[in-house]
């Protein structure tokens, strides 16, 4: 498949986004898995083919109304041949492993190849739907990518379907680090893994334990837990199935801070205050932008309450925001988070806020507040920016 041609041609991209299994080979457009009715009134699937006319590296308006077909001749739902599109012609070897068994002719002023191919598909597939209303040519196939073609192992059709690919491209080539994968950090990984950053570096030296399963994405099996994998082995094994460029560092980053020097952005998701202070000082000194997350969850009147905080900093920011970072180690007696209460939803929210703040830094989300630190109160159900907090004080 010619990925660049599809990406640059709105009509082909629309076919792909609508779920059609398309391919481009040797100058021909192929739409595979098109349901049709045979003379025996069976539903089978064939391939609709059209020669492509190009203007440089993208399609232009089709001048030829003819299409070709691989499969038996399509019929009406009662088994009669669809003669209205028949164009008697012998089978053709089109090269490149493409063989056309029949040629069709449905004359029309086609606007583009989406218009042309869906017109033919409607005539052919409509008869199959009369027998089985559930059949469709929009099969939404999984489309793998090649090494070097994408950081993802299959196409990111979510972005292209809604036209935000150019926005997401603002993250292309970035090297990202996530320090601490015990709770919030694992959800940060879940979100960052779905972006087109070049590399994701993970830092954690702990084992993936049973309590981690209740505050991290997905669903670990009992066999997973009995194997006692490291956090990074377990999590990278999951996300390596989706994308390339995940690197595991089973060390505490504060012991080997030089490994972070080449990063473009760092997520700090650790609760060891002394270690965090070492890392923050190093990142500020090196001019590496980062976001720090934190939460304080307490049990009060037989209910949980508390705050989630996100603080980010980059070269040129007001350094006073750094005072918002909490360097205290957790109070085991007062902080219910330390007892591994199942609060995955809070980890998720804290991670989402951090990733949104990161994307604001790179111009993906609009940022009218320009706040580099803010918190969310569970009890009040309120988000407070740094400036709001200062005014309230």
Describe the protein.
- The protein has 393 residues and is an alpha+beta fold.
- It has 12 helices and 17 strands.
- The protein has helices spanning 3-8, 10-17, 113-131, 157-162, 165-168, 184-192, 210-213, 222-226, 231-239, 273-286, 344-361, 386-392, and strands at 21-25, 28-37, 43-51, 54-55, 58-59, 66-70, 92-95, 98-100, 102-105, 175-179, 199-203, 246-249, 265-268, 290-300, 303-313, 373-377, 382-385.
- An 8-stranded mixed beta sheet has the order 12-11-10-13-14-15-16-17, sandwiched between helices. A 5-stranded antiparallel beta sheet has the order 1-2-3-6-9.
- The longest helix has 19 residues, at 113-131.
- It is elongated, with a radius of gyration of 28 Å.
- Residues 388-393 have low confidence and may be disordered.
Give a quick summary of the entry:
The protein is built from 12 helices and 17 strands.
What class would the helix/strand composition place it in?
alpha+beta
CATH architecture grouping of the largest domain: 3-Layer(aba) Sandwich
- Which term fits the overall shape? elongated
In total, the number of domains comes to 2
Distance, first to last CA: 60 Å
The CATH topology label of the largest domain is Rossmann fold
CATH superfamily of the largest domain: NAD(P)-binding Rossmann-like Domain
CATH class type of the largest domain: Alpha Beta
Mean pLDDT: 91
Q: What is the C-alpha radius of gyration, as a whole number of Å?
A: 28 Å
Q: For the report, how would you describe the main beta sheet?
A: 8 strands, mixed
Q: Helical residue percent?
A: 25-40%
Strand order of the largest sheet: 12-11-10-13-14-15-16-17
Domain DUF6791: 10-157
Domain THIF-type NAD/FAD binding fold: 169-295
Pfam families: DUF6791 (PF20590), ThiF (PF00899)
GO molecular function: ubiquitin-like modifier activating enzyme activity
């Amino acid at each position: 498949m010619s990925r660049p041609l599809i990406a640059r041609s709105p009509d082909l991209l629309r076919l792909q986004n609508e779920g059609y299994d398309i391919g481009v080979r040797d100058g021909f457009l192929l739409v595979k898995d098109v349901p049709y009715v045979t003379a025996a009134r069976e539903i089978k699937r064939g391939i609709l083919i059209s020669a492509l006319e190009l203007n440089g590296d993208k399609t232009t308006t089709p001048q030829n109304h003819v299409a070709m077909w691989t499969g038996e001749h399509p019929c009406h739902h009662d088994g009669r041949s669809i003669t209205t599109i028949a164009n008697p012609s012998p089978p053709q070897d089109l090269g490149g492993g493409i063989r056309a068994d029949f040629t069709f002719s449905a004359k029309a002023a086609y606007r583009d190849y989406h218009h042309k191919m869906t017109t033919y598909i409607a005539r052919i597939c409509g008869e199959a739907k009369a027998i089985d209303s559930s059949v469709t040519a929009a099969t939404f196939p999984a489309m793998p990518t090649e090494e070097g073609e994408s950081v993802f192992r299959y196409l990111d059709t979510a972005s292209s379907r809604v036209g935000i690919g150019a926005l997401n491209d603002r993250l292309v080539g970035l090297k990202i680090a996530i320090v601490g994968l015990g709770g919030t950090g694992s959800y940060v990984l879940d979100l960052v893994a779905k972006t087109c950053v070049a590399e994701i570096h993970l830092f954690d030296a702990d084992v993936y334990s049973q309590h981690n399963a209740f505050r991290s994405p997905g669903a670990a099996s009992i066999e997973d837990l009995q194997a006692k994998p490291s956090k990074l082995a377990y999590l990278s094994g999951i996300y390596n199935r989706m994308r390339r460029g995940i690197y595991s560092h089973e060390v505490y980053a504060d012991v080997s801070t030089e490994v972070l020097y080449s990063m473009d952005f760092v997520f700090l998701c650790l609760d060891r205050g002394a270690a965090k202070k070492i890392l923050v000082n190093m990142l500020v000194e090196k001019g590496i932008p980062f976001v720090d997350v934190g939460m304080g969850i307490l049990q009060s009147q037989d209910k949980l309450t508390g705050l989630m905080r996100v603080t980010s900093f980059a070269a040129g920011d007001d350094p006073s925001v750094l005072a918002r970072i909490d360097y205290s180690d957790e109070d085991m007696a007062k902080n219910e988070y330390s007892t591994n209460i199942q609060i995955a939803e809070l980890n998720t929210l804290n991670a989402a806020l951090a990733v949104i703040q990161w994307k604001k830094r790179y111009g993906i989300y609009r940022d009218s507040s320009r706040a580099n630190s803010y918190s969310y109160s569970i009890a009040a159900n309120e988000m407070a920016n740094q400036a709001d907090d200062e005014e309230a004080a």
